[in-house]
Here is the input.
Amino acid sequence: MMRSLDAESVDLAFADPPFNLGKEYSSKINDALAEQDYLTWCQSWLDEMIRVLKPGGALFLWNIPKWNLPLGAYVGARLTFRHWIAVDIKYSLPIQSRLYPSHYSLLYFIKGSKPAIFHPDRLPVPCCRHCGGELRDYGGYKDKMNPLGVNMSDVWTDIPPVRHAKYKKRDANGLALKLMDRIVSLASDPGSVVLDPFGGSGTTFVAAELTGRRWIGSELHCDTILDRFSALEGDQEHLADIQANKNTLFTDADLKRRKKNGKPLSKDYRLLQSDGSCACPPDEDEQSDLFKAS
Here is the structure.
């Protein structure tokens, strides 16, 4: 499929291949190749992803650290390395005689010396899910914090595993819509072309479609993807919720928890108002009166 694409025609390329862990796939592919055979196969499609990438375009590779170590070295000899992003997701039971594997590797490369598109989302201040209080004390810097939120780091701890039947579209593990919205938002613009040669349940395509990108993809069995696109209302609602909880200093849910537990927000913070302007929260006495009144 990728050989049919023009060179330098894609803005963002993302791959989530089989991990060669001996899993059973409906396609009956061999997911237990000899190590060098697996790496050689991966290099063959990585070469095509690199070929079709525009100058300044981004390539993201999702895999377990075992494979992204040699594959990252291979891609790094051809593209410019930007980040090794650790995505904290726990799927399985601990493995005897080893540390508990609790993160996936997301490698980020660009074609050339600098990215053509780079605008990562900002994230809310991490807060206690019980009381709404900040999990980190920002001390005397509260008044200097961006009202749109905190800078994104290369460790992502807020990506949920896809377990709930409402979001799980197939038996095999799927990617979270939150993950793909973050990647698509970071490295593409509306109208950009997004490529995913391992479509899976179609999450990349959904994130691209619902945010106004164009997309190209493939999968050995497309029924799940076609069914998903025939009824996108659930994904639209889910994405709206995701986007309402980014590029803001505090989520509405955390503010409600603070209110419920009588934890006024420091007046040193600047919050983004609905009209786009910034304002400080009421002082503690005013907030206390508001809590009582409500």
